[in-house]
Amino acid sequence: MLELIHLTKIFNSLKAVDDVSLKVDAGDFYGFLGLNGAGKTTTIKMLAGLYSPTGGNISINGTDILKHPVEAKKMIGYVPDQPFLYDKLTGKEFLYFCGGLYNISPALLKVKIDGLVEQLKIGDWINKRTEQYSQGMKQRVSIASALLHEPKLILVDEPMIGLDPLSAQYVKTLLKQKADEGCAVFMSTHSLNVAEEVCSKIAIIKEGKIIFDGNKESIESFRMGQKQNLESFFLELNK
Question: Would you write out the chain's pLDDT as a tens digit for each of its 239 residues?
C-alpha cells in the first residue's frame, strides 16, 4: 500500500531524512517512533505531498506521488500534528466543506458525518464554531475530516496531542477499526504505550535513519532473546 524507497530530505546542510526505505501493507497499523528532531514529521509531510523529497520515491498503492500527485493524494487521509480548522465555520460546516472537495454526494456525506460524529463522540459541539473548540475537540474533527472519503492510507502525526484519556480511546478504537477493515495506518507518536497497545508494526527513526523496522514480536529476537517492553527497547536504542 505504501512504499518508501531510499527517501531523503535535505534542508540546506541538514539531512533531516536519510535514505529511508519502508513498506506498509494494507491492514498494517504502523507506528513511526523517534525523539524530537529525528525526522518523523518531515517524513510524514513528504508522504502527504507537502514536502518534495530531495531524493528517493514514494509509492501509494502503486502510484508514484511525485509523478501522479492528485491520484495519489485521493487515496490519503492526513491528520497533521496541529489541526487546522476554519474558525468561523461550525464543525459540521467544516466537514461538509471537506467532503465537497472529494465530490461526495450530500446524502452520502451526511451519513458519513453522522457516523464519524458518533464514533468520535463529538456530540453537540459539531454545531458550534470551531473557534470555541478545545485542542482535543479540534483534533477529533480533524480526524473525522481525514476519513470522510474512505482513504486507503491514513497518515497520522501525533494524534493524541490534547486528548483526554476517554477521547484518546475513541481515536485509538477508530484507527484500529480502519486498519482491521484493510486501511494502512501510518502513525507518528511519542506515546510509546499507545504504540505498544495498537500498532502491529514499529519503525524507529534516529537522526534521519531507520534503526529498527519490524513487528513487536521481533523486538525480542532483535535483542537476542531478551524480553523488553517497547519503552525500554526504544530508550536503549536512543541512548
Answer: 999 999 999 999 899 999 999 999 999 999 999 999 999 999 999 999 999 999 999 999 999 999 999 999 999 999 998 889 999 999 999 999 999 999 999 999 999 999 999 999 999 999 999 999 998 899 999 999 999 999 999 999 988 887 888 889 999 999 999 999 999 999 999 888 899 899 999 999 999 999 999 887 777 666 555 666 788 888 888 88
* Domain extents in the chain: 2-82+154-237
* The CATH number of domain 2-82+154-237, selected from 3.40.190.10, 2.40.128.110, 3.50.50.60, 3.40.50.300: 3.40.50.300
Q: Burial level of 180, CB count in 10 A (0-12/13-18/19+)? A: exposed
